[in-house]
Structure formats: C-alpha cells, structure tokens
Amino acid sequence: MVAVSVCQAYRFALEPTPAQERALRSHAGAARFAWNWGLAACKERYEAERRWYSATHLHKLWNAAKKVDPELAWWGENSKCVYQESFRDLDRALKDFIRSKKGERRGKQLGFPKFKKRGKCRDSFRFSTRVLRCAANTVTLPRLGMIRTHESTRKLARRLEAGTARVLSATVSRTAQRWYVSFVVEVERKVPERHARPDSAIGIDLGVKILLVGADHAGDVVSIPGPKPLRVGLRRLRRASRAHSRRKPGGANRRKSAARLARIHARVANVRADALHKVTTRLAAQYETIVAEDLFVAGMTRQRRLACSISDQGFGMALRMLAYKTGRRGGQLILADRFYPSSKTCSDCGYVKAKLALSERTFTCQACGLIIDRDENAARNLLRLGTASGAETGLAEANACGAAVRPEHAGLAALNQEPGTAIVGQTGTATRQLVAAGKVLAHAR
Ligand SMILES: [Zn+2]
Q1: Residue 373: active-site member
Q2: Whole-model pTM above 0.90?
C-alpha cells in the first residue's frame, strides 16, 4: 500500500429557505457581475495592448472601484470571496483562450471569453476559504450561513473531523431549479501497488444507448446496455428538444419548454451517472488494465443527433471515473490516441478500411472475411492496442499510438477537468474525484 493525496469532490443538493434562496441568487448574480465587470476591463486592455489584467490586479481595481462607484454600493450584500473567484475564473478562461489559439490546448478551439447574461448562463459561484463546514444534514457557507442539505453530509464531516481531508473550495450552482454545493476536498488515500488480478485487461467502446461493449483478455465479450430509465429518458429528451425548437424565440412557451428540457436533461444525466458509477466500479475491480478511446475521438465519431452535450458529458464522466477507480486499485486506464482507427481496423487481420459509415453496425473485413459487431470489433482492437507489444501482434504502428495514462500518484486521467467544476450526477455519493492541478499524468505517445 502506498499513501497518496488525491482530490475528491463531494456534492450535495441544498434545501435553502426562501431567504437563503434569495441570497443564493444574489451571490450568483454577483459572480456574473464580477465576471462581466472584469471582462470589460480585460477586453479593453486586450484590444489595446494584447494583454489583460491578472486576477489579483482585477481584485485591486475592483476594491478601489467599489468604494467610489455608487452603482457598486450593493457589493457588501455578498461574500467578497465570490468576486475574487470570478476574477480567477476569468483569468483562467483568458489563459485557455490564448493556449487554444496557439494550439497548446487539446479539444475544440476556444473563443475569447463572453459576457454572461442572466438566464442564459449557469448560475454558479465559488468559495475558497477555510470557513466551510458541514455537519449532519447541513453545510455552512460564508455569508449564507447554515443551509440544509437534501442528504446526509456525514461521510465528509467525519473525514474533516478526523483530519484526513481538507476542503479546497466549494462551488454552489443551480441545475433546473435545484441548488447544489460541490466541495473539492484533498484526501489521503491508501492505494495498492499492484491490482488484485494482475495482467487482466479489457478494451471498451463507450456508447450512449449501450453504455459500453468490452472485449477482455480471456476472450469474453461484455455488453452493458443502458438501464431502462436511461433509454426512456433519452427518448423523452429527444422529443422535448424537438418540441422546444418549434417554439417561437422570446415567447412564454419557449421559456416553459426550456425549463422542461432542462429538467429532463438533469434527470437523464443523473441516471446516466448512476449507471456509469456501477459499471466503472465493476470494471475497475475486475481488470487491471482498461483501454478506451480518447474522449475527443469518442465524441467526434459518434452520431451527433442525440443531444450531444449528454453524450460528451457521459464519455468524459466515464473516463474520469475509470481513471480514478483503476488508480485506487493499482490498475490503469490507457487511452488510445485520437488517430488510432479502432472502428475501422479488422480485429483479426489488422486490415484498415478506408471508410466505415456510422450507420454500419457490422464490420465486414474485405481482406479476411471477418464479420463482427462494430462495437465488439473496436473493443477488441483497443484491448490489443493497450496490452500486447507491437512485435507480438503485428500491430507495431498501432501500438506506438497508445497513450498510456498511468495513475502514478493520484489515479487521475489527463483530462481537462478543473477542480471546482461540478459534475452533473447523483448527489451525496462521496466518490467523485477531480483532476488536481499539477497531478495530471503523462499522456505519452
Ligand atoms: Zn480482416
């Protein structure tokens, strides 16, 4: 066993009183205001000098302005921490924009940060002070006081009491009329040096309707369909989003259908997160090595007709869960490079097809005549890519593309997940880890 320190998120649904709810809205408004205020200043400077104000600099400017500008007289109604955190977010968004522009950032190209409009953006704000407490069924936040939670906070409270955990930040956000608080906590954890089932491995192909198809070292094929509530939810979501797009922009019906859509969305995300938790826990226990496609490819090659935010969110979530769950058990998650054609390669002879339409659910090899389910074929390729050495399999060039994400310290994947970002999911489960800054692992080729 090796002791490692990891970041973990605890998320609770809140049950604020009407007065507290008003205060929550006020804080969210303040966070938005501070973002817009800072962005206006940074934009002006960026246009003139190609540089912006750092978070600390903005905070200084804000402190000076709030004392003299009568329009900012309300600032004291909200915790000053909220403004500060907004400036930090803005600073990071600007840095990401520059890195994306220079091609140093993975994923889709980012634009210059945008102004946040009430009702159009996510209501959220963050605290990063030490005066965050939780006990029994409550959490205590600066300025907002003690707020009741929907479920028990005991698990976290016990850790804090015992001194085995330290709160780094708390993010409060609203999803479809419900407020949540998400604590990012640093915890000490004991991790075995080797997995209980050494040399076991599985390649997995992630999907939406079918959660995943896997092929393991013993030649078994695992197919895990999404639970029924998820399939029903996805159908409902599709219908609701079609209905929503038919409503006239700006109308009352449009507003109503948007709220309905958000509710269904939240529900589907919860069900999906729950299902993913179950299956990833099982996989991490059964296999030392899990090989999957990079999030980027997974998102790109799939049908986009399904609410794409749902599918992207799901893939990211599944990979994060696998990364930390394998890490905890001494296993590893390996991500295939985005250029590896896992769907188009024959898992038997290695022949690579030039094209494979998304609608083709069966893979038929022109070279050796293999006929196999598309997802199973991809899973087999991923398994081989992650486990065997090139010489043994004749897939030398493919093997060279494998990007190993070895959870050396924290059991975390090299995903762009920032501490403080809430993950939509089941509340109260105290097992969601986020990637800690500085603990991102090698994504070597
Ligand atoms: Zn073949």
Answers
A1: no
A2: no
Intra-chain end-to-end CA distance of the chain, in Å: 29
Q: How far is the CA of 350 from the centre of ligand 1 (A)?
A: 6
Question: What pLDDT, in 10s, does the model give residues 274-314?
Answer: 889 999 999 999 999 999 987 654 444 444 444 455 566 67
Residue 429 pLDDT exceeds 60: no
421 CB-near residues (< 8 Å, 6+ apart): 171, 434
Q: Which residues contact 85 (CB under 8 A, 6 or more apart)?
A: 31, 125, 126, 127, 128, 169
Select which of 89, 123, 205, 216 is catalytic: 205
Contact 424, 269 (CB under 8 A): yes
Report yes or no: 158 and 135 within 8 Å, Cβ to Cβ: no
Measure 40 CA to ligand 1 centroid, in angstroms. Answer: 58
Q: 331 CA distance to ligand 1 centroid (A)? A: 31
Q: Could you tell me the two tokens for 273?
A: 């997160």
293 labelled catalytic: yes
Residue 231: the pLDDT is 81
Tell me the CA–centroid distance for residue 355 and ligand 1, in Å. 14
Query: What CA–CA distances, in Å, run from 38 to 92, 99, 124, 392?
Result: 12, 20, 17, 57
Q: What is the model's pLDDT at position 173?
A: 93
Which of the residues 293, 294, 337, 376 is marked catalytic? 293
Distance 38 CA to ligand 1 centre (A): 58
**pLDDT tens, residue by residue, 318-353:** 888 998 899 889 898 888 877 788 889 999 998 999
SS3 at position 29: helix
Going from the Cα of 384 to the center of ligand 1, the distance in angstroms, rounded, reads 15
How many other CB atoms are found less than 10 A from the CB of residue 382? 30
Write out pLDDT tens, residues 43-63.
Answer: 999 989 888 899 999 999 999
Active site residue 348: no
Output the pLDDT for position 75: 87
